[in-house]
Amino acid sequence: MPEDKKEKPIVITPDEGEHHHDHAHGHHHGHSHPPSSETVDITLEENFMERNKKLARNNLQFFEKHGIRTINILGSVGSGKTSLVEAISRKLAHRRDEILVIAGDVTTTIDADRIAQQGVRTIQVNTGVECHLDAKLIQKALQSIDLASTKILIIENVGNLICPADFPLGSHLRLVVVSVTEGPWMIQKHPVMFHEADILVINKIDLAEVMEVDVDQLERDAKQINPKLVVFRTSIRKDIGVEAVIEHLGF
Ligand SMILES: Nc1nc2c(ncn2[C@@H]2O[C@H](COP(=O)(O)OP(=O)(O)OP(=O)(O)O)[C@@H](O)[C@H]2O)c(=O)[nH]1
Ligand SMILES: [Mg+2]
Description:
The chain is an alpha/beta fold. The chain has helices at 35-65, 81-91, 110-116, 135-143, 186-189, 191-195, 208-211, 215-225, 242-249, and strands at 69-75, 99-105, 121-126, 152-156, 173-179, 199-203, 230-233. It has a seven-stranded parallel sheet, with helices on both faces.
């Protein structure tokens, strides 16, 4: 193709009136409103986010008081979050009474059913229309169970690299699972998620070659966004690297 025939991508932004305001997410809208409605919109969203942060702080205090180590597992749809929870539960089978898992999903109990097969107590939280868990839902889930023996709480967030990043739950650690099957750009495209995380698990390395994805480059992308990230490479399917993750989690 001749040089002058190269095309640039067409960029489309939402039109006025196209966006619905009946939700209360922390999205940053790429469009403008008349000043009055903009003010109301931002105030509502900031209050909502602040309220979640406060509830997350309460949750953390609760976990500290009861000696419950809590991790929030985030990541794209199908990256291997449930597989990781299953593997941890299997490897810590001797401590299964100490483990509680909260599985967040829009609908269905598929993940919770899978995890429960490992013999750990599991709570499924269905978020309905919401694309993330929030601190209030965690609080509510914890009220539904006797926590006496619980020392480890593993929360699997809704599969998504965008909205869950804005909603702290009060966990000690945030762990993001990505997989090479998501292609080479998913980290660069979702900096907020990686900026807020403590641990990155790059999963499905058994498929890296066929996907032609450079795992070293993924790691460099992540470290550029957040130099403090601790990175692990795993194939949960082939049981590679999972024990190092567990060791780091300090369970
Ligand atoms: N080849 C390969 N497949 C894997 C690996 N880890 C997980 N899978 C497969 O990937 C699929 C999705 O894994 P899940 O653990 O359900 O992913 P998830 O992140 O919990 O997915 P959602 O909860 O739906 O967002 C399953 O078929 C897993 O068996 C891996 O290391 N290698
Ligand atoms: Mg899952």
